[in-house]
Amino acid sequence: MITLAALNALPATEFVAALDGIFEHSPWVAARVEPARPFDSGQALLAAMRRAVDDAGIEAQLALIRAHPQLGARGRQRAALTAESSQEQRRAGLDACTDEEFARLQRLNAAYVDKFGFPFILAVRGHTPASILADVERRLAHDPDRERRTALEQIGLIAGYRLADRVSD
């Protein structure tokens, strides 16, 4: 963990590196907010990062969404997860899914990607495999624009959890 004061004092490249993984495979988010330092709270930093995503335009937003892994990855897909994603999925019980739950999640993930063109994103803290499956099913009814916005909201929640785990005020 790093203090906010120490983070604010880092050279630009180290600031961006220290925030690597807050937004999955997307260091551009931290790079965009770096000139706005110093931040007076972790919440102010998070708000700035979320605004950077909101202001980035649809193509950058879609790239950010597509940088996220599929939920319920196993085997080689699991090995490709970031440490943060792996830990989050494990905490939600996705590594302990029954074969039936896993097969259902794979079917729902495929239907979701076919419909929206990006992976299903959910801030899984506090979720169980059953609640995740229910959420995928519910969100399959969304239209593409609404679902893009929902995915970005979920990414913002994930970023908030990750930032709180890494930076202390």
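Above is the first protein from milestone M3; the second protein from the same milestone is given next.
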Amino acid sequence: MKPHLLRITTIPLSLKILLSGQMEYMHHHGFLVSTASATHPQIELEYDSEIRHYPIPMVRRIALWRDIICLLMLIRLMLKLRPDIVHTHTPKAGLLGMLAARFTGVPVRIHTVGGLPFMTTTGRRRQLLIAMEKLTYWGAQHVWPNSASMIAYMREERLCPERKLGMIAGGSTNGIDLSVFSRGQVSEERLQALRQSFAYDATATWVVAIGRVVKDKGITELVAAFEALQPAFPQLRLLLAGPIEEERAEEMLPLDTLAHIRDNPAIQHLPWVEDVAACLCLANVLVHASHREGFPNVPLQAGAMGCPIVCSAIPGNVDIVSHEVTGLTYPVGDTVALTAALGRVLEHPAEAQAMALQLRQSVEQQFDRRVIHGALLERYRALVGF
């Protein structure tokens, strides 16, 4: 009988993008696979017909009564499915999914840590978020941070018992599909379709940021750095590709930053980019200014595309980008340092491109998706004796 694997994320975007290809891979290698997440009217999950998806109306913010309802729904789902493995990703899905799995006696309970929200908070909220993380780890048998620097941070902070900690391969949640993220695979038709979706200028130098447009992604510092460099680089343009946060007040951008995004004609905003590879082809430099990460996909994708990178020196980012070897890093939240690093890339594009080439070679050697999927499959099989 096939072992049953249930994967849970808070929102469907994580299943579609963060875990792209994993469900089909596990299904084709002998597992019965189900997924659960909230639904979204613009996001459709396209699986093989035998992979079932179950809607659970979770939200990222703390919402006590809704969270309790979702916990009960997950308990009911697990009692119905009787999965052999429950594997959760993202903080809210991890908390509710691991509690439900422990309460229902799921034999194998795994949570992947892709970032720690408390790292950018203070006071009582920080203590609450730490308590929620520890409760998640209480429910889990296996806690897998997705980068070496993240697992080191968790050990230093004593967040989780050592016996539960582990990591898949060299890190990363899903690796990188090098057959997709390769400049040679991006057609002129795809590039033209993307150009037509915003005010593209072929003569401009494009700084690109991909991801949610929120404070934790360093967008405030990026916009300030970009505008500081505009006088010296009049052809400079900024593309922000991702949704602006409108749900969680603590993540919303300051009103003045939103005004700059709206009023500066050199700044373009796309709420959604389906073709990330094409977007990175159009970029002269990717800036990933995030305040916290686990193992971020976007710098990995940029590395595979040979796109120069400037990123914050935080756990996760530094597992991908080595300063002045494969890109430039700067102290997180430091607008002056970000401005200097971005200015260096703009002034010395050949140097930046040489570092990008080094990063492409590193990604090929360490983070090929086939390696990550294979290592995860082996771990699953060992845990269920299959």
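Note on the second protein: The chain has a mean pLDDT of 93.
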